[in-house]
Specification:
With 330 residues, this protein is mainly alpha-helical. The protein contains twelve helices and seven strands. 44% of the residues lie in helices and 8% in strands.
Length: 330
Amino acid sequence: MRKAAVNRLKAGMVVSRTLFGREGQVLLKAGTKIKEKYIKSLKRLGITGIYVQDERLEGIETAEVVQDSTRQEARLLVKELINEMGRNKKGKFHCQQEKKITRVVNQIVEELLANKDIVVNMDDIRTIDSYTFSHSVNVCILATLAAVKRDFNAEALQEIAVGSLLHDLGKVKIPDIILKKKGPLTEAEYAVIKSHPVYGRALLSESALCAETVLNVVYQHHERLGGQGYPQGLSGAEISVPAQITAVADVYDALVSERYYRKAYLPHQVIEMFTSWAETYFDVEVLRTFFSFLTAYPVGTHVKLSNGKSGLVIKNKPGFPLHPVVRVLY
């Protein structure tokens, strides 16, 4: 199985992992033979790649970080919540929303605990949807897995999962014209954006989800180790560890995602960026935790080696995101 760019798909290839749409509907089932009309539809939907079978990688499988059904449920919940909070001028949670959030994050925690030794490729957790909804779920999965790696207890895992899933909730108070602006923000617009952690904490503080860890994650996820962040300009140990973890997950997913104003960076480029930011913006130990499970070159990636030979990535080694195991082809 390997990830193939849609513009390089050919009729007759076989889908190896079920592809889901924006509303959780199945677009292409695993085992489906690709036809030209499917390729055209994928391009029209803006899908850039899918997993296909490859006999050169026979017997090599990649484990799911969380089940597709769990990921889809979480994404739809975030979408529903953000839409409701945007319409609700009082901005209050109701009991059913709190119960749904608790159930979904408990499922995510349970599945990550069962897969704590997994190596993560962002393509494995990304869904086809607007950035806001998929980003919230991606950050939740990444931050919670980092907390699992650091042996957080059950209560702390649930709280970081809730906080990271809802870390951008305050953006419901930010006008779309600013959130979706394609060009550079003005100083005044950036000041408005920087208010979303304050709004997020206020929205959550009156709910049953207002544990201190949750509020810290929502309020502090844009703080930076050297005091360069917002809204308070906290530094070092003033920033809670769950918030520091969520900050890394937030920035990582943002950089590997395509945005209104730029193309997505490649995973290996982002890992190199984080390496250069260690001790300035992000804690070294927190980064080491992420590097223990992130991968720059997913299984099935075609790579050119330093000796000029070509190969396919067949395995990733925990803790060595830039050094995969490669099967040489020619």
